[in-house]
Every structure is written in structure tokens, then in C-alpha cells.
What we know:
The chain has 9 helices and 9 strands. The chain has 236 residues and is α/β, with parallel strands linked by helices. The protein folds into 2 domains: 3-71, no CATH class; 76-235, NAD(P)-binding Rossmann-like Domain (Rossmann fold). The strands form 2 sheets. A 5-stranded parallel sheet has the order 7-6-5-8-9, with helices on both faces. A hairpin with a 5-residue loop joins strand 1 (19-24) and strand 2. This is XdhC family protein. InterPro entries: MoCofactor_Util/Proc, XdhC_Rossmann_dom. It comes from Hoeflea alexandrii.
Amino acid sequence: xxxxxxxxxNAARRDRQAAIMLTDLADGRNRLMxxxxxxAGELGEAVEKAFRTGKAGVVEAEGxxxxxxxxxxxxxxxxxxxxxxxxxxxPMAAMAGFDxxxxxxxxxxxxxxxxxxxxxxxxxPEDALKDRPIDPFTALVAVTHDPKIDDWPxxxxxxxxxxxxxxxxxRKTHAxxxxxxxxxxxxxxxxxxxxxxxxxxxxxxxxxEIAVAILGQVIAxxxxxxxxxxAQAEKV
Length: 236
């Protein structure tokens, strides 16, 4: 492989950017493509699908055969709030392949006893996320019901182009949230990306059922992103 391309690929992986090393099987030439690069036609469709699924393989496009070696960062889930829903959601999300972190400054909730074997940070999100900021491959789940805790990470996730942003609360609660985020300078389209009430509409009642509804919605956003979500991620 061209050392220059290898350095670019390693830099992309270090910075948690999605990239595909495309090899023309006819002549062996390589080309590095980043997520968001404009690629037209059948090849563009194949590349988009590969980014979405994260699966490498041979594709045929425009009468040629290519091997797509896909490098997509592992998905993260940041859960704001060490509540009962989070106790169920964190292990479920980890089993589904997410790198999970639970953040809550309320030390009465954020205890190792309640979150065994979970990356738990008993601190304010503003401080907890300094070392691992939200990026386009992060799902942000806010479930504290407390705007002093939830609002900052929600704003950060929307600005970072996180692939999923969801917040717990009734429609009345969310209406007040929309007012606050608007006052903070976010536009209507940005705020509209928040899934609220959070989770798939499956009639969930218990914390465990709500956790299933949230995880299902997160996986759908990861594997079947809307055109708007893709556009937001490509701007970052």
C-alpha cells in the first residue's frame, strides 16, 4: 500500500473518521475515500452502503470490480443520567456492540453498585466529556429530566452531528426544552433531530421496556439513517 495513503488512513482511524480503502481489482490501484466525499453512480451507491453497514467486500460498478475495505469507528452510546432506565439500557447496548458510558453528577445515583462493569462517570457532562467528546458515531441518550444536566450534552451532540440524539420527557417537557435550546442559539432543524419522547412507540411501560425501545431506535438510526441525519453528519 502507498505509505501516504496508509498515513492518511491511520490518521482517520485515530480521529474516529470513517474511511474506505478502495482497491481496483483490475490493476491493484488504491484510493482512500472519506465519508462525505462526493462519489457518483453505482460506485457511490456501493460506497454509501458499505459505510452504513460497516462491511467490507467486493462490489461491481460501471463494469469494474472493486474491493472495499471499510474502516468505521465503533459506535458509542453516552447516557446522561444514572437512572433505572440506564441500568437496563447500559448492558443491553454493550451486548449490541456499543461502547457505553453513563454520566451523572448526582453521586447518589452514579454508584458502582448500581452500575457494575459499566464505564460510569460521576461528574457534570461538561467535564466528563472533555476526554472523549461526542462525535458523529455517538448516540446521546438524555434521561435525567433535569435541564441543568441534560441541556449541555444535547446541544453538544446536535452541534457534533451525533447520529442519534434522544431525550426523555413528555411533549410538554420537550416543548419547554425546545424553547431553551432555541434561546441557546440552535435552529429549528437542529432541534428537530431530537427524538422526544425518546424510544420507539411500542407502548413501553417498565424501565426495561423503555430501554428496549430506546436501543431499537438507536440501532435504526445507526443502520438506517435518514437523509437529514446523513447530511448533518457530513457537515461535521
